[in-house]
Write a structure and sequence with these properties.
alpha/beta; 10 helices
């Protein structure tokens, strides 16, 4: 199971939000590049970056900063936030980004079907949910779509990976929602990466028990910045063979 450290960027700085609420913002560092270099330790294959300004604006707003990270950090970069059309996907890939996370736009107008042939090896679908229902546009808008139903649609498009975030857990440091993850893993054959609520090494050990069911990775953010999880220890725990 891969450990994927997260960097959320707002106003050019590294921040974390509580349950996606911009009014509950904590600024941790001024330089995303310095943070990315610190996270690119042995065993970390990818860093997950979210352009929070982009998620709210509907187009990437911090791409120059993220491009600099991609050029200078020796690990793969995954980017989400405001990527909602084919031209933007191309622009992001040309900037050196390895994986592109599509969230809001993935739900609209058969967009995934349109892009799956050209980009499916580069695309990760981000599913952000609370109580099983999907939220979009930076976690502001509740939809009438069930996360599991949509995950099954993603699978039919030929896209292999989803990032599943339980919004109710994100930034709360109270542990992941194991039950919802189990339900999702049972319903699809997708590669699932979990996010939201991871607060301790014990949480990682519990998530690792889902590896046999298809859980491929875990995104960790606030717990790293708060010193609750040591990244080297996390990599060691999650890379152990059962």
């Amino acid at each position: 199971m891969k450990v994927i450290p997260a960097i959320d960027i707002m106003g050019g700085k590294v921040v974390r939000l509580t349950q996606g609420d911009v009014k509950q913002e904590t600024v941790y560092f001024d330089s995303p590049l310095e943070v990315a270099n610190g996270l690119a330790i042995p065993g970390v294959e990818m860093i997950h970056i979210v352009d929070l300004d982009g998620a709210m604006a509907g187009r990437p707003k911090n791409l120059k900063i993220i491009e600099k990270i991609a050029q200078n950090v020796k690990t793969k970069i995954e980017l989400g936030g405001g990527i909602r059309d084919e031209d933007t996907i191309r622009k992001v890939i040309e900037a050196g980004i390895d994986r592109v996370v599509i969230g809001t736009r993935a739900l609209e107008n058969d967009f995934l079907k349109k892009i799956s042939d050209e980009f499916k090896e580069k695309i990760v679908v981000g599913i952000d949910a609370r109580e099983g229902m999907i939220y979009t546009k930076g976690w502001i808008l509740k939809t009438n779509r069930r996360a599991i139903d949509f995950a099954q649609e993603v699978e039919k498009c030929g896209i292999r990976t989803i990032n599943y975030t339980d919004i109710s857990k994100d930034g709360m440091l109270k542990g992941p929602n194991i039950d919802s993850l189990k339900e999702l893993l049972d319903a699809t054959g997708l590669d699932v990466v979990a996010a939201g609520g991871v607060s301790s090494i014990d949480d990682l050990k519990e998530l690792k028990t889902l590896e046999r069911d298809g859980l491929k990775g875990v995104i960790i953010g606030k717990a790293l910045y708060e010193g609750r999880i040591d990244l080297s220890e996390a990599v060691k725990v999650c890379s152990q063979k059962e």
